[in-house]
Amino acid sequence: MPDPDLLIRTAGEMRVSNFLLWQISYAEIWVTEKPWPDFDIATLHAALSDYSKRERRFGGLKS
Q1: Which of 7, 31, 42, 63 has a CA 20 to 30 Å removed from the CA of 48?
Q2: pTM of the predicted structure, to 2 decimals
């Protein structure tokens, strides 16, 4: 299984709590204030929409 490209954190949590540290080293992190029980398809679409607008450089500099 490939490493994740996007990590979604709910309830406004900004920390990853040692969760998949090596696997998410190049993942984009998206944080929402919604708690997990209220996470719905519209919130998922918002996360994916925001992710699609990001420029992924994998630690490199902008060319």
Answers
A1: 63
A2: 0.82
- Decide if 19 is inside a domain: yes
Confidence of residue 48 (pLDDT cuts 50, 70, 90): very high
Our count of domains for the chain comes to 1
Under DSSP, the state recorded for 52 is H
Cα 3 off chain centre by: 12
Task: Output the six-digit token pair for 25.
Answer: 């080293």
Q: How far from chain centre, in Å, is Cα 48?
A: 9
Strand partners, 9: 31
Find tokens 């990590």 and name the residue. 7
